[in-house]
Specification:
It is a single chain. This protein has 197 residues and is mostly helical. It folds into two domains: 88 residues, RNA polymerase sigma factor, region 2, helix turn helix motif (Rna Polymerase Sigma Factor, Chain: A, Orthogonal Bundle), CATH 1.10.1740; 95 residues, Arc Repressor Mutant, subunit A (Orthogonal Bundle). 71% of the residues lie in helices and 0% in strands. It is built from nine helices and no strands. α1 crosses α2 and α8 crosses α9. It is elongated.
């Protein structure tokens, strides 16, 4: 990876060069920033909100906030983590607006819970699809902070310290949220598969 050294002496990534140009009004540079983070933004939003359509809507809001608040990004920080934080906040806002009153059946009818998109080729594929469906349903039942911690740590594979920075929390709190969230997901999946017998 090519590293650049800005005037203030902090080491920064090539994305920081794009940030500088975007702050100066270069829309092509801003497009480059969006392309660099789009996959992560949509992935986090899809897992937090439950559907691709909602994830796409959330991504648009994330990019709007990214544009509005680009001046607050500290050069030399991790740009992708900064945008992940914006994504989590947008998803929390959308979840609050959506409310938590809907039951899982209402969620299913509204198309908010993902289903395997293609028919399984083997019994193993079928089981994997059922497991993912159960985990996706379980995620939708978690409180926003636990859901965000699980999505960022377990599904996006980010280190606990980075998750803590993104969520504005301590690593200890994040570890607790992950532990509690995992237990709830396991319990949900146990009930889900127990009910299928």
């Amino acid at each position: 990876m090519v590293m650049t050294v800005p005037v203030n002496g902090n080491v920064s990534s090539p994305l920081d060069a794009l940030v500088g140009r975007a702050r100066a009004g270069d829309m092509a540079a801003f497009d480059g920033l969006m392309q660099a983070v789009e996959e992560r933004v949509v992935s986090i939003a899809w897992r937090m909100l439950g559907t691709k359509d909602q994830a796409q809507d959330a991504a648009q809001e994330v990019f709007l906030r990214m544009f509005r608040h680009l001046a607050t990004y500290r050069t030399g920080s991790d740009f992708r983590s900064w945008v992940s934080g914006i994504t989590v906040n947008v998803c929390r806002d959308l979840m609050r607006k959506r409310g938590s009153a809907a039951s899982l059946d209402e969620e299913r009818e509204a198309g908010r819970l993902p289903e395997p998109s293609a028919p399984p080729a083997t019994e193993e594929d079928l089981l994997a699809g059922e497991r993912w469906s159960a985990v996706a349903r379980a995620l939708q039942t978690l409180p926003p902070n636990e859901r965000a911690a699980i999505v960022l740590r377990d599904l996006e594979g980010l280190p606990t310290e980075e998750v803590a920075r993104i969520l504005g929390s301590s690593p200890t709190t994040v570890r607790s949220q992950i532990s509690t969230g995992r237990a709830k997901v396991r319990a949900f999946c146990d009930r889900f598969f127990g009910g299928m017998r």
